[in-house]
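task queued by scheduler; priority normal; single chain, no ligands, no partner chains; default sampling; output format set to structure tokens
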Amino acid sequence: MPSIGQWFDLLINIGGKSPRTFERQSAYSLETLIYGTETREKISKQLAKAGSTLGEIVGNRNIFRCTTESNVATDAWILIWHFEMLDGVFWERVAVKTYSKLSDSGYNVRPFFAF
């Protein structure tokens, strides 16, 4: 399973966008509402060359766990793509953010060397 640093590298080197430049930043999240489609398509094209995919979007989201814990003992980091119309604005969000490891949500796990 990748670390959050490996997801950063993937977003920068293949997706073409650094989470450090995303317009919404806090101690627990780096996200943009405008590069979701672009980064997902670039990464998907590279995976397709190897006969693989990022997987399906379920409930408007495609979420991946990682091995990096946050500064809160029960939290870790995730990578999320989220596509949805909210308050009249189309979100095409991509974010790295913390989540509760105690959550029973069905997030994806992807071996890093699959990239």
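post-processing summary
- The first strand starts at residue 24 and ends at 26.
- The beta strands are 24-26, 29-32, 61-69, 75-86, 89-100.
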